[in-house]
Amino acid sequence: MRISSQIDVSTLSADLSQRSTDVTLFKYQALGNSYLIYDPQRNLHAIGSIERATDWVRMVCSHDYGIGSNGLLVGPDATVNGAFEFRIFNSDGSQAQLSGNGSRIFARYLLDAGYTDPTLKLPFSIAAISPMSRVVVDVPPPEPDDPRILTDINVVPSFGANAVEAQPGAIQGSGLHFTVAALADIGRRHRMGDKWIDSSLISIGNPHCVTFVERPETLPSVDFLTQLRSEFSMIADAPPHSSGPVFQHGCNLQWCFVENRESIHLRIVERGEGPTLASGSSASAAVIAAYARGLIDEDATVVMPGGMLQVTLLFHEDEIRGIRVAGTAERLAEIRVMSPDYAVCDRKPAN
User: Is 162 labeled as ligand-binding?
Assistant: First the structure.
């Protein structure tokens, strides 16, 4: 994939003793899903230092003690095989493998910051890296007069308990239909009856549990998910933030109602973050799961509390080889905050 205009970011690391006393962050949002961006070139910091500053990441992402955000994007780190690499941190300081909205926001930042020239309308690539994976996302040129950013997530989905590293005995079922006992139990205790018993388990570079409901009224509200955040976190979050009784590394949770073959409705609890208004990777996983069940076509609108995304499955020889997500992303603010004390914030994020 050709890079339209590229800045060498492979030599941006600097001696921390020469850093300034504050850093510049950029805040973006996509469908109510917000991220802060930490650009090493702008701040002249070593990229690895942020990974040790878990407490600082939690502070700046906090709505009470910091700026407020669903997470922190760090990059561009380098360009490897033609892709701008970046890292994704959840608001609890843990490192994520993939974020659909985060990828779109990072692509928008690269255009805004001049790493690529938007007037040339050429494609470029980004890569979300973590200790467990490297997911390449291609960014095609935008359609004329279309404000949306297109991102093609290059992943082959995998299904089942092994794909999401479910703990033995925590789930029952096979194929595309599983019952997650802990999730079903929450539903029963809070008057949902036996409505949360049919889930598909899928990995698209990060793990997802998509629970299908038959009526829109059995979709949990954002307020309901927020009130029970601690209960859902015990299922969704990775240890040590949960006891890990269901998924070895945590799992993103979705509730899905299929309106028709072109539209689904979604509610979301993200691993390491909690209830969110929207999620690109959750929307992608839900479309793949619904398509695999034969419920929708390969191109669908995903309706979430934060807004709508258009998700299109990409095929090669009748197999899903990727997901195209189309949606907006906008810059909200440029903010200067205190630099983290790396001598104190030396804990590594959870995988």
Answer: no
